[in-house]
Amino acid sequence: MPEFEIQLRDVMLFGRHGVLPQERLLGNQYRINVRLHIDASLFDEEADDLSATISYAEVYEILRQEMDVPAALLESVAVRFAKRVRQTWPGIRRGEIEIVKTVPPIPEMVGEAGVKYRF
Fold this sequence. Notes:
The protein is α+β, with helices and mostly antiparallel strands. It has one domain (3-118): 2-Layer Sandwich (GTP Cyclohydrolase I, domain 2). 28% of the residues lie in helices and 34% in strands. It contains three helices and four strands, in the order βαβααββ. A four-stranded antiparallel β-sheet has the order 1-2-3-4. α2 packs antiparallel against α3 (74-88). It is elongated. The mean pLDDT is 95.
């Protein structure tokens, strides 16, 4: 079955997520990747109409809103995002969101930490 994969890649957003109090106070930069798979068999290239697909701008707005709500766990943010996009576009076959904390509060660690949720 043909499908489209709608993507947002390397989106940088600020958020106040984390278990430690300083994470909630200071916040952190997050790099986020989103993939949403939708049925392409009904797409009419002649109509060239946004209603036949998913608006990147609307996906970004949902993502931005969910990142603005502090959470102890990135898993909570990912699940909230997934629920909202599924409610907005019930035709999503499957999706994935990856949220990466670019500067995790782990002493002496060089690198990033994150979560990937497939739905």
